[in-house]
Design brief:
- With 229 residues, this protein is mainly alpha-helical.
- A hairpin with a 4-residue loop joins strand 2 and strand 3.
- The chain has one domain.
- A three-stranded mixed β-sheet has the order 1-3-2.
- The chain has eight helices and three strands.
């Protein structure tokens, strides 16, 4: 299996990996900076999210505290908004920005935002594709069996599509978040830029993930093409 680890195609994914490392550093830097700055309004992330939902007439979404750091998420299937402890219980600018972003996903679901609906539907197939695709390609390359390679590439293409459709979902959620933070008075005018920096840095991680996935697909196609030659 040395061709999988020492061939030139590994170089194809380096730009995505480097961008991912930079994006993670930016997220951590922005979060660490603004988690230390308390908002003047004094609401915790959980309190603000609950108030935002109530103001939008949404009463069927449960807000839960989850373990981990930056593990915040919204599950449209169970109608649960999960906020990490550092966000749910904090009054920081970073916490309010992240909580507002996740609440933005709730509003997307309420409004039937089509990219979110597509992404939600693609989750099961994308999970299978990302986990199984490389196994199929690897076995196909070892035994020179083209149909397995093709099946693996098709499955991985679904995972790539998932990362691409995630981009408008995340950008739109951040846009909704900033609008809600401003219109609701949760952050003052001089506090809003800090929240935006946190959300912009987080958005960059999704861009990096999408680029990495696309480059991985290009690598699979290159490996497949080399086998045919």
């Amino acid at each position: 299996m040395p061709f999988m680890f020492y061939d030139w195609t590994i170089l194809l994914i380096l730009p995505g990996l480097l961008l991912s490392m930079w994006a993670q550093a930016r997220v951590r830097g922005a979060y660490n900076k603004y988690e230390k700055v308390a908002s003047r309004e004094g609401l915790t992330g959980a309190e603000m999210a609950r108030r935002m939902l109530q103001n939008e007439g949404i009463h069927d979404v449960a807000i839960e505290t989850v373990q981990g750091t930056l593990t915040d998420h919204y599950n449209p299937n169970t109608l649960t908004l999960g906020l990490s402890q550092g966000v749910a219980n904090s009054t920081s600018i970073a916490a309010l920005g992240i909580a507002a972003h996740e609440t933005g996903h709730v509003l997307q679901h309420r409004d039937g935002y089509s990219p979110l609906m597509v992404r939600t539907a693609a989750v099961p197939v994308a999970n299978v594709g990302s986990n199984l695709s490389w196994v199929l390609v690897l076995v196909g390359l070892i035994f020179s069996f083209g149909p397995l390679i093709t099946a693996g590439i098709i499955l991985f293409s679904v995972a790539v599509f998932f990362t691409l459709i995630t981009l408008p979902v995340e950008f739109n959620a951040s846009k909704r978040a900033m609008a809600a933070l401003e219109s609701g008075g949760y952050l003052s005018a001089d506090e809003l830029p800090g929240a935006k920096k946190v959300l912009d840095a987080a958005a960059l991680t999704y861009v990096a993930a999408a680029l990495t996935a696309v480059l991985q697909l290009v690598r699979l196609l290159a490996l497949s093409g080399r086998r045919r030659r």
